[in-house]
């Protein structure tokens, strides 16, 4: 089974250092969970980020964040939200209650932001989380052509050029959603996924056949994107993989790759440091 960190619920993980004067709250509101982190505005974005404090809750647990947040003094809040208007309303209420003096910035896709140009045909239609992940990826690996795979409720596979352009990508059902569509018990998916390797593509039982098909559909899309980019551009590419399902896919990737947890939070930090209008 690949190593992954223990999921964080309403309880947060925090450092013991004194809070800096200029603290940012970064929020990634996804389809299933809301991830957040506290960071010093001057913190350098890194591939292995160590946040001042961070946590993750499901949507029904959102109100529990008041306890985690109330001990902080926050000047700015930067938010990516793909969870819809109801979650946005709840976050607005919570942030206003806990941090009444803070400025709240809701990020959506645009033509250019924080050093990344958006080449989508209609830039505003690109999911904000995809754009912000791409911003974080480009900041971490400038001048490097990248395939950014985010594996959550949905799996997105996006191309980011070393010159700083979001070129486009693919969207497919996430690992759990894909398996669930076959009407099987997906609760066992992580356990089975951890024991399915590339040498066992042709499973001899239905449960493992479903898992094998789902894993190889996911990794196949990622590896095809890497191969296609290199073939089209003649340049080597690095795959960055993030999201809750990433640990189950990583053992089956044969392309050059690096696991970057919480890439949206990193992208939010980069945007906050760029101080957009």
TrEMBL record:
Gene Ontology CC entries for this record: cytoplasm
Name any one GO molecular function: pantothenate kinase activity
Q: Catalytic residues? A: 129
Protein residues bound to ATP = 28-35, 153
Please name the pathway: Cofactor biosynthesis; coenzyme A biosynthesis; CoA from (R)-pantothenate: step 1/5
Q: How is the cofactor bound?
A: A monovalent cation. Ammonium or potassium.
- Can you tell which superkingdom this protein's organism belongs to? Bacteria
Q: Which cofactor does it need?
A: K(+); NH4(+)
- Alphabetical keyword list: ATP-binding, Coenzyme A biosynthesis, Cytoplasm, Kinase, Nucleotide-binding, Potassium, Transferase
Annotated GO biological process = coenzyme A biosynthetic process
The EC number(s) this enzyme carries:
2.7.1.33
InterPro entries with a match to the protein in the record: ATPase_NBD (IPR043129), Type_III_PanK (IPR004619)
Q: Does the keyword Kinase apply?
A: yes
Stored Gene3D superfamilies: 3.30.420.40
- On whether Glycoprotein is a keyword of this UniProt record, the answer is no
Cell compartments where the protein resides = Cytoplasm
Task: Quote the record's binding site residues for substrate.
Answer: 120, 127-130, 206
Q: Please give the family membership noted in the entry.
A: Belongs to the type III pantothenate kinase family.
What does the UniProt function comment say about this protein?
A: Catalyzes the phosphorylation of pantothenate (Pan), the first step in CoA biosynthesis.
Whom does it interact with, and what assembly results? Answer: Homodimer.
Q: What is this protein called?
A: Type III pantothenate kinase
Native source organism of the sequence:
Undibacterium oligocarboniphilum
Q: Which gene encodes it?
A: coaX
């Amino acid at each position: 089974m690949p190593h992954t960190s223990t999921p964080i619920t309403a309880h947060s993980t925090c450092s013991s250092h004194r809070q800096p004067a200029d603290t940012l709250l970064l929020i990634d509101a996804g389809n299933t969970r809301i991830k957040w982190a506290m960071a010093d505005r001057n913190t350098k974005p890194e591939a292995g980020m160590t946040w001042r404090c961070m946590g993750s809750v499901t949507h029904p647990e959102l109100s529990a964040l008041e306890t985690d947040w109330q001990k902080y003094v926050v000047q700015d809040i930067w938010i990516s939200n793909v969870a819809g208007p109801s979650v946005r309303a709840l976050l607005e209420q919570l942030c206003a209650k806990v941090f009444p003096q803070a400025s709240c910035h809701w990020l959506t896709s645009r033509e250019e932001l924080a050093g990344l140009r958006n080449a989508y045909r209609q830039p505003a239609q690109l999911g904000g989380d995809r754009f912000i992940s791409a911003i974080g990826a480009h900041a971490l690996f400038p001048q490097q052509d990248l395939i950014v795979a985010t594996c959550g409720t949905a799996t997105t596979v996006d191309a980011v050029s070393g010159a700083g352009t979001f070129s486009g990508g693919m969207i497919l059902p996430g690992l759990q959603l894909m398996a669930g569509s076959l009407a099987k018990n997906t609760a066992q998916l992580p356990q089975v996924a951890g024991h399915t390797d590339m040498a066992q593509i042709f499973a001899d039982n239905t449960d493992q056949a479903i898992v094998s098909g789902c894993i190889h559909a996911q990794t196949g899309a990622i590896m095809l994107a890497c191969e296609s980019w290199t073939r089209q551009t003649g340049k080597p590419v690095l795959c960055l993989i993030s999201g809750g399902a990433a640990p189950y896919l990583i053992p089956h990737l044969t392309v050059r790759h690096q696991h970057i947890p919480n890439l949206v939070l990193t992208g939010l930090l980069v945007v906050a440091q760029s101080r957009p209008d």
